[in-house]
Amino acid sequence: MTGAFEYQLADSWEEAVELHRIWGEDGKILAGGQSLVPMLNLRLVQPAGLIDINPIGAVEPRVADDRLVLSALTRHQDLLRSPLVREHCPILAEGAAQIGNVRVRARGTVGGSMCHADPSGEIPCMVLALDGQLIAHSPRGQRVIDAERFLRSYLTTDLAEDELLTEIRLPIRKHGQGWAFLETVRRYSDFATVEVAATATLSSDAHTVTALRVVVGGVADRPLILSDELLSAAVGGTGRDDELRAVGAAAAATVSPESDVHASADYRRRLTEVLTYRALGKAIERGRAESKGAGV
Amino acid sequence: MTKTQVQLRVNGRTHELWVGTNRLLLDALHDDLGMADVRYGCGEGVCGTCTILLDGEPVSACLLFAVQVEGREITTLTGLPAADAESHPIQDCFLQAGAAQCGFCTPGMMLTALALVERTERPTREDIRYELVGNLCRCTGYTKIVDAVEEYACRRRGNGSHD
């Protein structure tokens, strides 16, 4: 059982922002509760006030200004079930299927995952790979935060004490863009040992790889974007096996993961190499298929 | 701590009870309402022994507070409609496959499997393993559980026994 707390219901984002201001650092926001409630049960966190934002409800995913707009309260399983998500940001459906177990996907939310900022969480890795933006509200107004800035370190975000994450905006997939999310886990449902989210853009004749974006999770205090330099062996190329292997090797040489009871640093580096190589291959293959498919 | 009155809709019946705001739904169901089929395992949403259906979706009762689920429909294993007044078909399948030993995990397994078969008419063995990964069994080694769910899906499709 958890410690005692005052339970507060928020029916709107405005109310949530106000309650969040009143409680300050003594309050915690309850979204899906799949990370927070275990911590409450273990008494690792003992807030005086718990602000339940579930009654606000999530508006359906929608597209506006070439961006997929997700309410922070969108649940992981909504990513799997939404045709709009599959069409415009299909990587989210691929990655969401690998989150937790079926009960976690039923309750857990995308906003909660971002704010929890676990360095091996699937949602942060994908949102960073898609170069998403986070919308935060506070009594001072609204702030738009790039994912790269938002994810600061282990369980730490750029949100100020009075700010609340309300929405996530993700650029929709462009013509000829492929995607892949791969992770290695000890069992389905575990946190990723290492995970890779990749997008690849192909030229209009589907021949040349014109752009890549690759994010690796589980190897540092936050998901890492591979630099242009690391990707240079494959950008401008044709997606040849040796080009992709070169990027995998460069990525592995860059990361400095820590060893823990589940995996040694060397094993994580090796996974970085292999998963980066495979994710690139899959993303390029899909980009090529998309490119050709649309040309018919 | 302040107690608050909640109305819980469980297995088609409405229960009124006074709970602390930090009362877990699991404790309200098991301790306050005496439902022995909803069980404490880990308290972290990992083991699946407290699985219930919330408006038809499997969720962990240990990760919800009782005050959060007013107006929602909660189903536990004992609330399943029995085909022959004795047992639900999924219980028959578990029994016939020998898919339970100590039985502690069995209610959660069955509810998770029911929700899967509701959504997926013809689940593969891999689909079943994927869906049941959040329900831990420390006795059976899972093979017979997967057999039982496969058999249940087969019966539900209405083509008799699994070939």
Describe the structure using short key phrases:
heterodimer; A: 296 residues; alpha+beta; Uridine Diphospho-n-acetylenolpyruvylglucosamine Reductase, domain 2; Uridine Diphospho-n-acetylenolpyruvylglucosamine Reductase, domain 3; Enolase-like, domain 1; 3 domains; five-stranded antiparallel sheet; four-stranded antiparallel sheet; 37% helix; globular; B: 163 residues; Ubiquitin-like (UB roll); DNA polymerase, domain 1; 2 domains; five-stranded mixed sheet; 5 helices; 5 strands
Rg of chain A, alpha carbons: 19 Å
Structural class of chain B: alpha+beta
Poorly predicted spans of chain A: none
Question: Termini distance of chain B?
Answer: 58 Å
> What level of helicity do the residues of chain B show?
25-40%
Strand arrangement in the largest pleated sheet of chain A: 4-5-10-6-7
Description of the molecule:
The complex is a heterodimer of chains A (296) and B (163). By secondary structure, chain A is an alpha+beta fold. Chain A folds into three domains: 6-52, Uridine Diphospho-n-acetylenolpyruvylglucosamine Reductase, domain 2 (2-Layer Sandwich); 62-171, Uridine Diphospho-n-acetylenolpyruvylglucosamine Reductase, domain 3 (2-Layer Sandwich), CATH 3.30.465; 177-291, 2-Layer Sandwich (Enolase-like, domain 1), CATH 3.30.390. Chain A has twelve helices and 14 strands. Chain A has helices at 13-23, 36-41, 76-81, 83-88, 90-96, 102-107, 110-116, 122-129, 147-150, 228-231, 241-254, 265-295; strands at residues 6-9, 27-30, 49-52, 62-64, 67-71, 133-138, 141-146, 151-153, 156-157, 164-171, 177-184, 194-202, 209-217, 224-225. In chain A, the strands form four sheets. Chain A has a five-stranded antiparallel β-sheet with strand order 4-5-10-6-7. A four-stranded antiparallel β-sheet of chain A has the order 11-12-13-14. In chain A, strands 1-3-2 form a three-stranded parallel β-sheet, covered by helices on one side. In chain A, strand 8 (151-153) and strand 9 (156-157) form a beta hairpin. In chain A, helix 5 (90-96) packs antiparallel against helix 8 (122-129) and helix 11 (241-254) packs antiparallel against helix 12. The longest helix of chain A has 31 residues, at 265-295. Chain B is of the alpha+beta class. Chain B has two domains: 3-76, Roll (Ubiquitin-like (UB roll)); 89-157, DNA polymerase, domain 1 (Orthogonal Bundle). Chain B is built from five helices and five strands. A five-stranded mixed β-sheet of chain B has the order 2-1-5-3-4, with helices on both faces. In chain B, strand 1 (3-10) and strand 2 form a beta hairpin. In chain B, helix 2 runs antiparallel to helix 5 (143-156) and helix 3 crosses helix 5. Chain B is globular, with a radius of gyration of 16 Å. The A-B interface holds A 1-7, 33-34, 37-38, 40-42, 50, 52, 54, 77, 100-104, 106-107, 187-189 and B 1, 4, 20-24, 27, 43-46, 48, 51, 54, 57-60, 62-65, 67-68, 112, 115-116, 129-131, 133-135. Chain A: Pfam families: CO_deh_flav_C, FAD_binding_5.
